[in-house]
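Hello K.,

You asked for the raw outputs rather than the summary table, so here they are, unedited. I folded two proteins back to back in the same session to keep the settings identical. This is the first:
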Amino acid sequence: MRYVIDPPAVVAIPVGGDSAAFPVRRVWCVGRNYAAHAREMGHDPDREPPFFFAKPANAVVAGGGELPFPDQTDDLHHEIELVAALGRGGANVSAAEALNLVYGYAVGLDMTLRDVQAEAKKLGRPWDLAKGFDRSCPISPIVPAARIGHPAEGRIEVAVNGEVRQSGDLNQMIWSVAEALACLSRAVELLPGDLLMTGTPAGVSAVRPGDVLHGTCEGVGEIRVSYRAR
């Protein structure tokens, strides 16, 4: 087929221990999936079902690295998350079947323009740009589930300039990976190449120009990001 413009390049994340890469189709995110984080954001986690938002695939920064500090914010926040990468798709998938879709796992940062998000919420507007801005999604190499299984517990944390800011355990998720995938699959057909960011523990806080972030997820991997001074 002839295109009127060049097709976009495939966004891909390295696979640990393999020369192949994982092509990213879509990035789905679970909102407020840790009770303590829900409370620090002013919500009652016992009263709401999971909800989802999306980031564009080209927001992914494979492997992290040095990034420019976003010009449009004075309140950039880190949110450390386990990421599930889907090798298979499906619609109306049960929680018992959902993990069969997962190719592997990574650790990622859902970077958020908190001031942009707050202003959009106040005005009753969508807050897509607060989550989906360029380079808002640094993600570590993906580790196949065939190698590590499906992590349901383990320390997940992020340090800024060597100081731990967020620290939690995967077993603190309100909705497990399988439950979140099953719920999402009732709204959209999940597809190979989709990523699911599974929520963040408490302790989100501001990042400044010049800061260095080091995120880890026990048994999964690590991600390092630094922000250039303005």
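The second followed immediately with the same parameters:
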Amino acid sequence: MTASPLRLGVNVDHVATLRNARGGRHPDPLRAAEIAVAAGANGITAHLREDRRHIRDDDMERLKRHLTVPLNMEMAATSEMVEIALRLKPHATCLVPERREERTTEGGLDAAGQRAELEPRVKALCAAGIRVSLFVAPDPVQLDAAVAVGAPVVELHTGAWCEAIAAGEAAAARAELDRIVQAARGARARGLEVHAGHGLDPLTAETIAALPEVVELNIGHWLVAESVFDGLEGAIRRMLAAMKRGRGGAPARN
């Protein structure tokens, strides 16, 4: 199949993590988002966690008010978060698993096991005109569940693959990448829009960008960490260049 243009969503969570380490308002996630957009990002992602450990409610409100590109609100599939999303009306929501003791989102959402809870919440968000994606493991069972609950988009969890590469576990990395490839094809065959994210750096993003089914990557930690050395604009431009190489030169668009 012909590859569609590939979008980059920049996650600004860890700009807020750095701010919250000292308190106050610096560095400001909104300023980071504006720099990201100027550097070529197609959208901004922010995770409003239940414990508000990084992004806060006022961050979401300011992002929604000032951004000129789509805002993707990552959130747990809870009544509280659905109510906030329905009030805020971001362009999109990505439903993720969330545990208070985790350092970052670990694993994909168990859409198959939580179908009864997810279905009415996905329905409410979609009815409000909010694009809904489910952050899931590259597993056919979870893809079927996404279709069953009415989510139009899945974001495939690339973390296990990236971790296997970092650990030098070549066989495991090959197996995980094959799961991602098959899941991307399977999701597209089921009529789902396919995104990917978690743990990506330029090398791994370039590989995922070569999958024609994937139309959006959401990346945060590497960009924010690398900005210490290269500036946020420079880090984003490096990522976009890697994505373009992987895609065979196809330009990105909103």
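The chain has ten helices and eight strands.

Happy to rerun anything if the numbers look odd on your end.

Regards,
P.
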